Amino acid sequence: MHNTWKVFMFELKSILHKKSVVITTLVMCAFFLIATSVPTIMTLFDSKSNTPTETPAVDIGNSGFFLSSDSFSETELAAYFGPDMKMFDSEVSLREAVVSGTIDSGFVIQDPTSYKSIVKNKDMYSVSAQMVSSVMQKINTDRNLLAVGIDPAKVDKASIVNITVNEEILGKDANQSFLISYILMFAVYMLVIMYGAFVSTSVAREKDSRTMEILITSTKPSALIVGKVLANGCAGLIQFGVILTAGFIGYFANSANYPTFIREMLFGGLSLDAIFIFLIFTASGYLLYLFIYASLGSLVSKVEDVGSSVTPVTLLFMVAYLVASLGLNMPNSLMLRIGSFVPFTAILAMPIRYFLTSVPLIELLISLALMIATTWLLAVLSIRIYRLGSLSYGNKLSFVKAIKLLLNEKKV
Amino acid sequence: MILEIKQLNKSFSNKQVLHDVSFTITSGKAMGFLGRNGAGKTTTIRALMDVFKADSGQFILDGKPFVTTDYRVGYLPEERGLYAKEKILDQLIYFSMLRGATKKEAKTSAEYWIERFGLTFAKNAKLETLSKGNQQKIQIAQSLLNDPEILILDEPFSGLDPVNAQVLKDVIVESIAKGKLVIFSSHQMNYVEEFCDEIALIENGEIVLNGNLNEIKKEMGNRRLRLAAVNMSADQLKELLLSKITDIGIEHDSHSLIIELLNEKTKHNLLQDCLNCGIDIDLFSGYEPSLNDIFVKKVGAENA
C-alpha cells in the first residue's frame, strides 16, 4: 500500500507536469468560458440591432413572387407577407433571380389553388413553400366564408381556444435533465478515451524504454499498476474537474442571459442524489476501463503498437456510448435498462437512466455491486497480465493469449 | 554472506536454456559471472532477481532461501532503461523510495551518486538530454542507491568507454572492500580480469568452470612455461624444439612460446636441453594464463 502511494504520487506529478496536459486544460477552460458567455455576447449585439421594424405576419425569408393569373392580388398577398415582398414581372426574371442567388426561392402563383415553387437547391428543412400553401389556403377559406355571408374575423376569433395543461410529474422530467445528461455523458466518454490511452501508453513506454525490469525488481507489480491506474484516473478527474468548473463559472456568471428552457434543461433535474449516483458509477466504471487499458498496454513491447492493442476495449466503450446516447432519447427502453446492469455499459447508462427516469434503489445497488465486483476482478486480472506482459518482449501478446497463459500457469 | 545458486534449470518454449547451474558467491570477493552472449548469464540473473521463476533450483543465502525483498539489493539489468522525460534526481529519488528509503534518505543517496559520477550539473535535467555515456552512469547510479548489501550487475561494462569503465571498476572494488556481496556478469574478459576473485564460466546454459581465479590460473599454468630466444624467431625456435627435444607440447601466443611439460619432463631437464641446443634464452618463466586464455580454452577459440 505504501509503495502504491509512492507510485501514485510520482505518476500523478509526472502527468500534471506534462506541457500537453497543462496547455490542453488552459485551452479548454478558455473555450468553455467563452462558449458559456455566448448568450451574453449575443445580447450585446441584439441590443444594438434592435430597431423596431414592422414584421410581416408570415416570414418566408428571401423569396420572390410572380402572379401569372389574376387569381390573387398583390395586396392580398402583401397582407400576409408584408409590404416589402419581392414581386417579379415574369417567370423568366423570377427564375433568373433564383439562379443568380438574389432570392432563395421563387413562387409562380398560377391560380387560386396551385403554384409553382422554384429553388436552386432544395433544403431538407425549407418551410417557405409550406408558408405559401398556408397563406393561399387561408385566402381561399376567407373567400369561401365571405361567399356564404360569414365574417372570417369572427371564425378566426372562434378558433382561438387556449388550453392550459397542469402537468403533475411524479417521477422525473426527461426534458429537464437532458442537456446536463448529454454534457456529462460526453465528458465521461472523453475522460475514459483520453486517460485510457494515457495509461496504456504509459505502461507500454515503461516496457519500451526498459524501465520495467527495474520497477518490477524494486516493488510489487500490484503497487505499480494500481498506483499508475489511480494516478491517471485522478489526473483525469482533476483535469476534467477544472474544465467543468470553468464551464460552470462561465454559466453562472452569464446565467441571467440564458433562455429559461436551457436553464431548466441544464440544472432543472439535477439533485444531490443524482450527482452522487453519477460520481460513483463514473468513478468505478472509469477505473474498470483504466485497468483494462493498463493491462493491454503491458502486452505490447513498443509504444506504437498500443493503438492496435487497445482497439477492442475502445470499441467496447463506444458500444457503451452508443447505448447511452440512444437511451438519452428513449430513457425507458429495454436497451437502456439492460445496459445499466452490464458493468461495461453501466458507467454511462445508469447515470443517464437515473437522470431521466426513476430507478428503484435495488436496481441501483445490484448494478453497482456488479460494477464493483467486475472492477475488482479486472484489477486482479490486470495485475497478473501486467506481470506476465511486463517481460514478454518481442511479439505482441493478445489479451486472449495472455489469459490462456495465465490459466496454464495456474494449472502448473 | 554466502549466496548459493543450486541446480538451476530454466526452459523457454520447450528449449532448455539453463542446465543445473550451480555456483557460490561470497561477500567481500568479486565474483565474475562470465560467458558469451546468449550463454545464460542474464537468464540466471533474472531468475535470481525473481524477474521470472526458474523451473527448478534454489537460491540460498546464508542457509536460508533468498528472497530479494528481504535485503537491500542493487540491480543493474542487462537491458538498460529509465524514464527519458523525467528529471534525473526525481527518478533516482523515486527508485530509492520504492526500495524502502524515506524521501530524505532517497534524496541523500541520489545526490551522493549523482555527484560521485560527476553529474551534479545535470541533476535537474531530463535524462534524454544527457549523452549516452552519462545516461549509462545514471543507470549504474540507480543500482547503487540505498547502500545495497547485495549488488547484482548484469553486463555493467557493456557500452562504457574506458574512463567510465574505470569509474565503475572503482565503485565495484570499493563495494567489495566494504564486504558487500557482489556479482557481475561480463563477456569482456579484459575488463574484469584485474579485480575478479572468483569466476563462474557459463556456456550453453552449463557452468563449465567455477572457482578462485588465481587457483584456476595456477592449475591451468601448472607444468607450463614461457620460452623465447634472442637468436631466433618463435617459429624457428618451435621447429628446433620439436626436432631436438622430447616430452613437450608447444603452443604460442603473441609474447612467446608456451611449453607444456609432458610425462616426467622437469623444468630443469628442459632448461638443460635448451642450453645443449645452443638457444640463447631471452625468456624462461612460469606461465600464467590470462582470463581471456582461460575463456578461449574452455569455450573454444572459434566461439570467443
Total discrete domains of chain B? 2
Number of strands of chain B: 14
Beginning-to-end CA distance, first to last residue of chain B: 33 Å
CATH topology of the largest domain in chain B: Rossmann fold
Q: How do the SSEs of chain B run, as a string of H and E?
A: EEEHEEEHHHEHEHEEHEHEEHEH
Q: What best-fitting shape of chain A do the alpha-carbon axes yield? A: elongated
Low-confidence stretches of chain B: none
Please state the oligomeric state of the protein chains shown.
heterodimer
Total discrete domains of chain A: 2
Q: Would you count the extended β strands of chain A for me? A: 4
Order the strands across the largest sheet of chain B as they lie in space. Answer: 6-7-8-3-9-10
Distance between the termini of chain A: 29 Å
Strand order of the largest sheet of chain A: 2-1-3-4
The coarse silhouette of chain B is elongated
Please state the average pLDDT score of chain A: 85
Main beta sheet of chain A: strand number and arrangement?
4 strands, mixed
Q: Rg of chain B from C-alpha positions?
A: 24 Å
**Uncertain segments of chain A of ≥5 residues (pLDDT<50)?**
none
Q: Which helices and strands, and how do they pair?
A:
The complex is a heterodimer of chains A (412) and B (304).
Chain A: H1 2-16, H2 19-36, H3 38-49, E1 63-67, H4 74-81, E2 86-87, H5 91-100, E3 105-111, E4 114-119, H6 128-147, H7 152-159, H8 174-208, H9 212-218, H10 221-254, H11 260-267, H12 272-297, H13 306-329, H14 334-339, H15 343-356, H16 361-389, H17 399-411
Helix pairs in contact in A: 1-10, 2-10, 8-10, 8-11, 8-12, 8-13, 8-15, 10-12, 10-16, 12-13, 12-15, 12-16, 13-15, 15-16, 16-17
Chain B: E1 2-12, E2 15-26, E3 30-35, H1 41-48, E4 56-61, E5 64-65, E6 73-76, H2 88-98, H3 103-116, H4 132-144, E7 150-153, H5 162-177, E8 181-186, H6 189-192, E9 198-203, E10 206-212, H7 213-221, E11 224-229, H8 234-244, E12 248-252, E13 257-261, H9 267-276, E14 281-286, H10 291-299
Parallel strand pairs in B: 3-8, 3-9, 6-7, 7-8
Antiparallel strand pairs in B: 1-2, 1-4, 4-5, 9-10, 11-13, 11-14, 12-13
